[in-house]
Amino acid sequence: MKNIVFMGTPDFAVKSLQALLDQPDYQVVAVVTQPDRPVGRKRRLTPTPVKEVALAHDLKIFQPEHIASDQEIADFFDQAELDLLVTAAYGQFLPQSLLEAPKYGAVNVHASLLPKYRGGAPIHYAIWKGDQETGVSLMQMVPAMDAGPILAQAKAPIDDQVTVAEMFDRLADLGAELLIDKLPALFAGDLRAVPQDEDQATYAPNIKKAEERIDWTEPAQAIHNKIRAFNSWPGAYALYEDQRWKFWRTEVLADQTTDQAPGTVIGIKKKPAQFLIAAGDGKVLNVLEIQPNGKKQMDSASFINGGAGHIDVNDRFE
């Protein structure tokens, strides 16, 4: 029986935790996750997805605000007979003392093909930048952001309509599978750690609010990539009459071009439903799902058949 501490916070990490719990040869002796945070308009204090799983399995839980200075966790790592620390999207840097405490060290499940997209938003960036492939990496942890040697990787294609939420689910499953598949070799000493090529490293920092706004002067494909990369969070928006409209799904029309100014509505059709907007390269985006200011998210047919508000052809999004 291998004693494992698991560190993780969002839904992405849940699959790896659950996979460990399902293995009879591994015992998750403690879970470390971020503190409960206020969520929603009522600011209700809400546990992390990882904590919810830990509670359901009656696991020991730590939620330090600053793990590097938390004495309770330091004492636990010193006193417990730990074999491995497994992390997945935990959200804090770990001190060297914790990384070295378990017999087999610490490994991390990261949602990119490292050294590409180190940081907190690797899935967003892979879609936003138009990559056709991504994946997950199992790496040894070091006290630097996603910079440890690679133990194993698994690849996944990115199709042209996939959203970040859909890709999160796919990579969470893939990461859990990779972890469980490689742990026996890790414990047997049969996994070779390959150092990352620092010259190839790129970064994917957390999305800033200013980046959520659509720039219609960009090429149609770049706008389309951003919209699906921000679906379902944080959401990409544009302004119409100084009000925020969110765009959730689009497609680039390969056979249509326009000389209208970027952001201009160039067509509204009922059958088949089309809501067409000019992009910066003269190509056209067909909006498939939209959310007018103050309304619910809807498909283009519902939007158009509902009268499309007061927006009309030749109006313009900023």
Describe the structure.
- This protein has 318 residues and is of the alpha/beta class.
- The chain has helices at 11-21, 49-56, 71-79, 96-100, 122-128, 164-188, 220-229, 300-305; strands spanning 2-8, 26-32, 37-39, 44-46, 61-62, 84-88, 106-110, 133-140, 150-157, 236-240, 243-257, 265-269, 274-278, 283-291, 298-299.
- The strands form three sheets. It has a seven-stranded mixed beta sheet with strand order 5-2-1-6-7-8-9.
- α1 (11-21) packs parallel to α6 and α5 (122-128) runs antiparallel to α7.
- The radius of gyration is 23 Å and the shape is elongated.
- The model has no long low-confidence stretch (mean pLDDT 95).
Beta fraction: 25-35%
Number of strands: 15
Mean pLDDT: 95
Largest beta-sheet characterization:
7 strands, mixed
Could you give the order of the helices and strands? EHEEEHEHEHEHEEHHEEEEEEH
Strand order of the largest sheet: 5-2-1-6-7-8-9
Helix fraction, binned, reads 25-40%
Rg result: 23 Å
By secondary-structure content and strand pairing, the structural class works out as alpha/beta
Total count of helical runs of at least 4 residues: 8
Quick overview of this protein structure:
With 318 residues, the chain is of the alpha/beta class. It has helices at 11-21, 49-56, 71-79, 96-100, 122-128, 164-188, 220-229, 300-305; strands at residues 2-8, 26-32, 37-39, 44-46, 61-62, 84-88, 106-110, 133-140, 150-157, 236-240, 243-257, 265-269, 274-278, 283-291, 298-299.
